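Cross-posting from the modeling subforum.

Setting up a comparison between two proteins and wanted a second pair of eyes on the formatting. Protein 1 (sequence, then structure tokens):
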Amino acid sequence: MRALSWAYLAVAYAFVFLPVVVLVAFSFQDGRLPVPPFQGFTLDWYGRVLGERDLMEALVNSALVAAVSSLIALILGFLAAHALARVRLPGSVLMRGVLIAPMTVSYLIIALGLLTLFNQAGVRLSLWTAGVGHVVINLPLCFAITYAAMGDQQRNAERAARDLGAPEWKVLALVSAPMLAAPLAAAFFLSVTFSWDEFIIAFLLTRFDVTLPVEIWSMLRSGISPATNAVGSLVFLVSVTLVILLEVFVFRRAK
């Protein structure tokens, strides 16, 4: 039975990570196409990618959109979670459902809805409109993680701070937020990860300044090459780095 469990685990990991291994391996292909047989090892494709101005601008755009949208989603999600966890409001269950609802909606539907809204309002498509879309998809995640972490311990500490005369903004900034540092950091890093490689919303809600996934799609339109594998490997490296940082600096400290 134990051997069967290990075999199942090995098959599951192979199913998940084999495409990534192939992607990374053929990013070092010393040839024009990332297909077997492997023709030799080279770092030239990474040099071309890092020297490509459009790709580097798209990378910076992705990092900017991911960081700013995740921070805004985190703040809004934290405030909404605190309000619904601490104050009994009529229809609070419905409010929680509405806040979490975007998690069940396709990114394509959200992007099309926002595109229609921006066109009707006369808003120019840009990185800011893509950022708004990423706030919409990440806010429910931040709300759910923060709301689930709130308990009686935080409630008692907040009550004590108010009894000592602390204004509400100090209670939030100096008591509630530090006590929820681990779940807040987890929500932020997960939001950055989701925003970093999101394509559909970024594609429909940007025009001239694009994010890295949109730039990669533009490269794929002209055919596959080891350069696209190199870009994909760099995107995967950033995502893995964020997950490792989350594990080292958040989850282990929380334990």
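Protein 2 (same layout):
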Amino acid sequence: MPHRVAMLVLDDFATMDVGVPGQFFGIAEDFDRRKLYDVRTCTPDGGPVRCAAGYAIVPDHDLSLLDDADTVIIPGVHGGLPFEGSLDPGVAEALRAVAGRKRIVSICTGAFVLAAAGLLDGRPATTHWRNANRFRRLYPRVLLNPEVLFVDDGDILTSAGVAAGTDLALHIIRSDFGTEVANRVARRCVTAPFREGGQAQFIERPLPPAQGASTESTRAWMLSRLAEPLDLNALAAHARMSVRTFTRRFREETGLSPARWLNRQRVEHARQLLETTGLPVDEVARQAGFGTAVSLRQHLHAAVGVSPIAYRQTFRPQAALRSTTSATSSS
């Protein structure tokens, strides 16, 4: 059966946040074109709710939908009780009732709703950077980190503002069904397939002028040479910059250091190879640029918490299907 997603929409909802779950989870399919998620929408009483853009949505369900869901998503809101430190008692009770039994996700200022229900006390979370000071004043027990794109704390996940909700959606799809499925969703939605959760939000801070130079071509060059040793001097030389300038410019454009960005691309490439090929782990390590299976194991475990063999077994149905298809085509 498809994974059941219930989206709880409140008054003064953020329009893009409401569109993301249906679009991203709604188009995720396996290799037989079967839907992997069943996304449904509810409001507190099953009635219409309005947004600041001047329209309302009319859902098919009320709060009872949460009981049947595997994942509950709270889109952002632009005001209301959560911005005052409280929440409608019925909504708070419904969220507390499913906490610990369902995966709960907030997008943008949806974290205010979870915090008002008491679900984030003592837990790490994020929200839109512009609302961080208000959030801290209202909910001091939450371990807020407004610097990151999203926080995955197991059964509760929170994202930063607006577009960061797409990053969290792809992260969830990747965790549930693998890199290959998530990448297909990203391609169909014409968006970047991966931005690391720990990557910095694009907060309004003064940055030095770019002066026409960019590391984009060097990043493309790196992606085409993941199996090769790539040190900082070689990267800076390719970009025709000093090491110091290259490192600064790279971080300004990606939010990450060159080493961390490269390591993330190698991990993602290794995951894709493990899912879609039958290559030995040693060869996956070599092609991904880790050199040895031991190094691959360490980096993959740090990223997703499992070994290469365990990761491949988790997504073996996809890999087996691809392997069978390739063998048939070759014959």
